[in-house]
Amino acid sequence: MKHLQVAVGVIRNASHEIFLAQRSSSSHMANMWEFPGGKIELGESAQQALVRELAEETGIEVTQAEAIGSADHTYEDVRVTLHFFLVEQWQGEPWGREGQPQRWVKQAELVAEEFPPANHALIARLRQEAAQLAN
Ligand SMILES: Nc1nc2c([nH]c(=O)n2[C@@H]2O[C@H](COP(=O)(O)OP(=O)(O)OP(=O)(O)O)[C@@H](O)[C@H]2O)c(=O)[nH]1
Ligand SMILES: [Mg+2]
């Protein structure tokens, strides 16, 4: 089975909102919401892939990113390892550069079921962190 290494960006603004994009109806995990990102190419580090993918998909230039863990998941047809980065510093304003719908969601209001299964543990972590900050 194919095993993809994927760099994924949790873009978070000063109001603790996170930038989400909707996957196209023709892609793997069609119509689900995701954190922008994509496959790490040969010779690239995860961080380099993150910077390239976020420029391609959202138009921003990432100026700082913090690795916040990874997740491994086997779908029916493909295995993925997601390398997550928290992005709080960038230049420009993120938008759906490839025509994908997008929205900002408060960290505490992320809904796991809207995301591919590989994201569920991270969503739980982010929600928990947001709940703790609110208390
Ligand atoms: N970008 C992204 N991909 C995710 C997430 N969760 C998750 O399971 N994936 C999976 O990771 C795999 C690769 O991501 P991708 O489709 O964004 O890759 P890419 O941008 O390089 O796609 P491309 O082939 O259209 O250039 C897909 O199978 C996708 O379903 C997520 O939150 N963000
Ligand atoms: Mg992508």
UniProtKB/TrEMBL annotation:
One of its GO terms (biological process) is DNA repair. It comes from the Bacteria. SUPFAM superfamilies: Nudix. GO terms for molecular function: 8-oxo-7,8-dihydrodeoxyguanosine triphosphate pyrophosphatase activity; 8-oxo-7,8-dihydroguanosine triphosphate pyrophosphatase activity; 8-oxo-dGDP phosphatase activity; 8-oxo-GDP phosphatase activity; metal ion binding. Its EC number is 3.6.1.55. The keyword Electron transport does not apply. Mg(2+) binds at G37, E57. Gene3D superfamilies: Nucleoside Triphosphate Pyrophosphohydrolase. Its cofactor is Mg(2+). The keyword GTP-binding does not apply. Keywords: DNA damage, DNA repair, DNA replication, Hydrolase, Magnesium, Metal-binding, Mutator protein. It catalyses: 8-oxo-dGTP + H2O = 8-oxo-dGMP + diphosphate + H(+); 8-oxo-GTP + H2O = 8-oxo-GMP + diphosphate + H(+). Residues 1-128 form the Nudix hydrolase domain. 8-oxo-dGTP binds at R23, H28, E34, F35, P36, G37, N119. InterPro entries: Mutator_MutT, MutT-like, MutY_C, Nudix_hydrolase, NUDIX_hydrolase-like_dom_sf, NUDIX_hydrolase_CS, NUDIX_hydrolase_dom. Pfam families: NUDIX_4. It is an enzyme of class 3 (hydrolase). Belongs to the Nudix hydrolase family. This is 8-oxo-dGTP diphosphatase.
